[in-house]
Specification:
This protein has 107 residues and is mostly beta strands. Helices cover 0% and strands 56% of the residues. The chain contains no helices and nine strands.
Length: 107
């Protein structure tokens, strides 16, 4: 597995920091893998928890990853991916993508 910083290119969302390509790009999984980004306090200043998301690059552009979770205690955002690709922590303008699960559970 390789990880490299890459140009984000055109996105519908605002990238909060660098975009990373995890390769070999396009490698598919039988079961979802967890993609996790650490939150940088300066990079996410002014962004509410419900507007934090992870996005993955597909052939036609960037799509939000499913079942995201924000763990403020650990300072991470994670979501599931079914393939290796480029990934980015993003700010989504409207919360149409659903509320984030907050971890650890019960807090």
């Amino acid at each position: 597995v390789t990880i490299a910083t890459v140009a984000c290119g055109a996105m519908d969302q605002t990238a909060l920091g660098s975009c990373y390509e995890v390769g070999p790009r396009g490698t598919a999984f039988l079961f979802p893998a967890r993609v996790t980004f650490e939150l940088d306090a300066d990079g996410v200043a002014g962004v509410t928890v419900d507007h934090l998301a992870l996005s993955g690059r597909r052939e036609h552009g960037w799509d939000l990853l499913a079942d995201r979770a924000v763990d403020l205690e650990d300072g991470t955002v994670s979501a599931s991916a079914l393939y290796l690709s480029s990934f980015a922590l993003v700010s989504v303008e409207d919360a149409h993508h659903g509320a984030a699960t907050r971890e650890p559970a019960g807090e």
